[in-house]
C-alpha cells in the first residue's frame, strides 16, 4: 500500500487527516515513525511557502508521498496577526494557553467596537517521492473572536473562534461538525482527487 505522510508530528492534525482521508487505500501516518526525518524550518513567511518547504524537503528524504501543511489564524484588525506565527505567537511553539491569552490581550488594546472578524487558513501541498509538487490547496473558515474561552474541544485558537451560523466556537462544536467546515477539511477535500488517483494506482 502506498504511504502518504503528513509532514507534522502534531497528533491532532494527524487525527483530522485520518478522519478526512482514512477511507482511501493509502497508508497514512505523520512523522512520528520517522525520527530521522529532517526538521524543516518554516522560514518562507507565507502559509503556502512553509507548506511547500515541508513537502519538497520531506518527500525525497522519506521516499514517500508527503502532504506539507501550514495553517494559522488571521485577524485583519491585528494587521493579519497571528498569521504564519500562530503556533508561536506568545513565544513558545504550541503554547495554546499563552497564544490565546496574547490574542485576547492584543484585541483588548483596540478601540471598543473594533471588528473582531477572523479566519483560519490551511494550505496543503502534495509532493511525490521525488519532491515534485503535484497539487496545492487552500481552505478557509471564517468566524469571529469572542472575548473569553468557550469549550474544551479542538486545539489552538478553537475556544476563541466563534462560528456565527452555529453561535458556537470550534471548541464547543462536536468534532464531526468542525470536520465538515474546518479550513483543513476544505484544503484536504481539494487534494482528494489527486490522492484518489494515487490510491487507484497502487
Automatic annotation (TrEMBL):
Function of the protein: Pyrophosphatase that catalyzes the hydrolysis of nucleoside triphosphates to their monophosphate derivatives, with a high preference for the non-canonical purine nucleotides XTP (xanthosine triphosphate), dITP (deoxyinosine triphosphate) and ITP. Seems to function as a house-cleaning enzyme that removes non-canonical purine nucleotides from the nucleotide pool, thus preventing their incorporation into DNA/RNA and avoiding chromosomal lesions.
EC annotation from Swiss-Prot or TrEMBL: 3.6.1.66
Active-site residues, as the UniProt record annotates them: 70 (proton acceptor)
Reaction equations catalysed: dITP + H2O = dIMP + diphosphate + H(+); ITP + H2O = IMP + diphosphate + H(+); XTP + H2O = XMP + diphosphate + H(+)
Signal peptide extent: none
Cofactors: Mg(2+)
Residues binding Mg(2+): 70
GO biological process: nucleotide metabolic process; purine nucleoside triphosphate catabolic process
Name of the protein this chain belongs to: dITP/XTP pyrophosphatase
HAMAP family the record matches: Non_canon_purine_NTPase
Amino acid at each position: 500500500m502506498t504511504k502518504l505522510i503528513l509532514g507534522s508530528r502534531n497528533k491532532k492534525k494527524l487525527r483530522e487527516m485520518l478522519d478526512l482521508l482514512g477511507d482511501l487505500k493509502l497508508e497514512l501516518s505523520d512523522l512520528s515513525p520517522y525520527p530521522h526525518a529532517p526538521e524543516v524550518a518554516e522560514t518562507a513567511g507565507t502559509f503556502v511557502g512553509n507548506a511547500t518547504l515541508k513537502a519538497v524537503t520531506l518527500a525525497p528524504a522519506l521516499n514517500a508521498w508527503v502532504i506539507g501543511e501550514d495553517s494559522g489564524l488571521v485577524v485583519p484588525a491585528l494587521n493579519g496577526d497571528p498569521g504564519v506565527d500562530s503556533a508561536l505567537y506568545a513565544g513558545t511553539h504550541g503554547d495554546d494557553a499563552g497564544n490565546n491569552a496574547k490574542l485576547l490581550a492584543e484585541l483588548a488594546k483596540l478601540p471598543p467596537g473594533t471588528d473582531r472578524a477572523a479566519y483560519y487558513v490551511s494550505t496543503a501541498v502534495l509532493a511525490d517521492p521525488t519532491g515534485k509538487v503535484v497539487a496545492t490547496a487552500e481552505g478557509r473558515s471564517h468566524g469571529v473572536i469572542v472575548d473569553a474561552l468557550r469549550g474544551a474541544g479542538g486545539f489552538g485558537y478553537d475556544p476563541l473562534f466563534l462560528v456565527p451560523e452555529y453561535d458556537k466556537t470550534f471548541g464547543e462544536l462536536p468534532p464531526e461538525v468542525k470536520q465538515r467546515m474546518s479550513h483543513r477539511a476544505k484544503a484536504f477535500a481539494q487534494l482528494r482527487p489527486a490522492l484518489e488517483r494515487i490510491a487507484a494506482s497502487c
